[in-house]
Structure formats: C-alpha cells, structure tokens
Automatic annotation (TrEMBL):
It comes from Photinus pyralis (Common eastern firefly). GO terms for cellular component: mitochondrial matrix. Key enzyme of fatty acid beta-oxidation. Able to isomerize both 3-cis (3Z) and 3-trans (3E) double bonds into the 2-trans (2E) form in a range of enoyl-CoA species, with a preference for (3Z)-enoyl-CoAs over (3E)-enoyl-CoAs. The catalytic efficiency of this enzyme is not affected by the fatty acyl chain length. GO terms for molecular function: delta(3)-delta(2)-enoyl-CoA isomerase activity. Pathway: Lipid metabolism; fatty acid beta-oxidation. It comes from the Eukaryota. This is Enoyl-CoA delta isomerase 1, mitochondrial. It is found in: Mitochondrion matrix.
C-alpha cells in the first residue's frame, strides 16, 4: 500500500472512530494522543492507586468505551511518581461486607476479562511499584515498559493469601512455568532489571516520559497489520483462559469470599496492614 493511501486511511479511521470518554471519571485521567490516536489511561487514586470497587468500575467502563470506539490502542500508567498501583485495596478484603465484596470481586473479574482479552493492543508504562493486583494489570497488557528501581510481582503469599488461578494463568502467559512457580510460591517482587531478565517486562525506561515514548512506539508494530487478524490471534492465545473464568465466575466469587473471611486469613491481613502502618511510623 502506498504511504499516502495508508495515511489517508488512518486519518479517515481517526475521524470516524474518535473515542468519546466520560469526563466523569474520578480516579482516572483519559487522554487521546493526536499523533497516533492511542489512548492513555492514567490511574489517579492517591496515595497508591489501590484498586477498590470505584477504581475497578471506572477501569471497566473505560475498557468498554475503548472497545466500542474501535480504539487502535491503550497505554495504562499512573499519576503517582512511585506507585503504578499497590494492587487490590486491602480495605476491600479486611472484614468485608459480603455483598460489597461480591461486587468488588465481580468488578475485578470484569476488568481482567476486558483487559486481558481486549481486541485492541495494550501497553503498560509502569512508572512505579506494581505488587500483586498491580502486576496483574500490567501482565494483562501485551507490552510492558518499566521505570528502573521499582518492584513488580505477585507477592500474595507474603500476605498469607493465594493468587487466584486466573492471576496465575496471566503470569504463565508472560514468563516460564518454572519462573512462575518460583515467583508465586515465594511471593517474589522483582526489581525492574530482574523483571527484564526473566521476561516479566519487555523494556526498561529511565523515567515516565521515556516509558510513555517506548510504549507509544510499541503500537507502530501494528500499522501494517489488519486489526481483525491481530484480534483473532490474541483471542486464540488468551480466549480459553477467559472462557474458563466466565464458566466459573460465580464459583470463583463464592470461593474467594469464603476463603478471605476465614479468621486466619483476616489475621494475616491485619498483620500486613499493621506492617504497612509501622513502616511509616518507623520512617518518621
Ligand atoms: C489460604 C487461603 C487464602 C485465600 C485468600 C483468597 C484469595 C484472595 C486473593 C486476593 C488477591 C489479592 C491481590 C492483591 O493485590 S493484595 C494487595 C497486595 N498489595 C501489596 O502488598 C502492596 C502493599 N503496599 C506497599 O507495599 C506499599 O504501600 C507501596 C505500594 C510499595 C508504596 O509504598 P509507599 O511507601 O509509597 O506508601 P505507603 O506504604 O506508606 O502507603 C501509603 C498508604 O497507602 C496504604 N496502602 C498501601 N498499599 C495498600 C493497599 N494495597 N490497599 C490499601 N491500602 C494500601 C498504606 O497503608 C498507607 O496508608 P496510611 O497513609 O493510612 O498509613
């Protein structure tokens, strides 16, 4: 195809498919890059972007909008200069109200299914720590660029909890079975350079601007690839994991609720919360 025809087609698709975003997001900034029409979704829930029901619901909504508008791609990043996201909001799991917990877990499942299975390409510009649920969101994306000197990993066992099977499958889609087993059983958090060595991230960056530049460059790889061929291929690789959760969705919610409310698990969470608070006190 001639370059001029390509650019005409691109311009036409930009005009007809311009995504329309709600300006009502409280915990997200959503912006579209005029040069390539890639949407950057910035998590903005201080202090640590912990994923509570509100934030998860907004992420779910923005993913629906992007799919509807046939977006050419999305970058996920954070407004914080040291935390991408601290993972699930522990307060949603500590002494939970059962009905609220079910909604919370349902929203998390929604986000996972939409992000892991998105027809459009996705990249994470990881500009801070990404433990547990933060690592999950990053792994759902197809490409990860991470700023140096931060941590990423599924550290659930350190909290006395267990990463659900669909978290595990997401890691297995990213790094080897052997590395997944070692990482999960020990609750390992990888430093940026260690994450690169094991393939948990694809590129390192010096700072957020560099991470965004590298993440934007990832989408150039798809300029000559028909989106439908891309989307079918991604679905062939990831679709069965999503179908498994769809089939077991209710059971997954019930099992998680009954495990999380066990006294031993609650004690573990309390202990972990106290550690987080003490860290602050001993630093002061
Ligand atoms: C045996 C069977 C069990 C089965 C159980 C069922 C299965 C359930 C699966 C559940 C899966 C869960 C996945 C998760 O995501 S769990 C969350 C894991 N997250 C973490 O471990 C991260 C904890 N946070 C940190 O390590 C650090 O905060 C940070 C991200 C490195 C940032 O450090 P920084 O120094 O900048 O900030 P502070 O530590 O001072 O934190 C600022 C305040 O934010 C509060 N905080 C931190 N993380 C969370 C969180 N995840 N949820 C809620 N609140 C959080 C922290 O306490 C500070 O609060 P304060 O200002 O009030 O003191």
């Amino acid at each position: 195809m001639m370059a001029s025809t390509r650019s005409l087609l691109r311009t036409k698709s930009l005009i007809s498919n311009l995504p329309r975003f709600s300006s009502n997001y409280k915990c997200l900034d959503v912006s579209v890059n005029n040069d390539n029409n890639i949407t950057t979704v910035t998590l903005k829930r201080p202090p640590v972007n912990s994923l509570n029901l509100d934030l998860l619901s907004e992420i779910s909504d923005v993913l629906t909008d992007l799919k509807k508008s046939k977006s050419p791609g999305m970058i996920l990043t954070s407004s914080s200069d040291k935390v991408f996201t601290a993972g699930l909001d522990i307060m949603e799991m500590h002494k939970p109200d059962p009905e609220r917990f079910k909604q919370f877990w349902y929203a998390l499942q929604d986000v996972w299914m939409k992000l892991y299975g998105s027809p459009f390409p996705t990249a994470a510009a990881i500009n801070g720590h990404a433990p547990a649920g933060g690592c999950l969101l990053a792994m759902c994306c197809e490409y990860r660029v991470m700023v140096q000197n931060f941590n990423i990993g599924l550290n659930e066992t350190q909290l006395g909890i267990v990463a659900p099977i669909w978290f595990i499958k997401t890691m297995l889609n990213t790094i080897s079975i052997r590395d997944t087993e070692l990482a999960l059983t020990t609750g390992r958090l990888f430093k940026t350079d260690e994450a690169l060595a094991v393939g948990l991230i694809d590129e390192m960056a010096t700072d957020k601007a560099d991470a965004l530049k590298k993440a934007n460059a990832f989408f150039e790889r798809f300029e000559m690839i028909p989106p439908i061929a891309r989307a079918y291929t991604k679905d062939s690789l990831r679709g069965s994991d999503i179908e498994d959760l769809k089939k077991n969705r209710e059971k997954d919610i019930q099992t998680t609720l009954s495990l999380i409310t066990q006294p031993k698990v609650q004690q573990g969470l309390e202990f972990y919360l106290a550690l987080l608070k003490n860290k602050k006190e001993s630093a002061a």
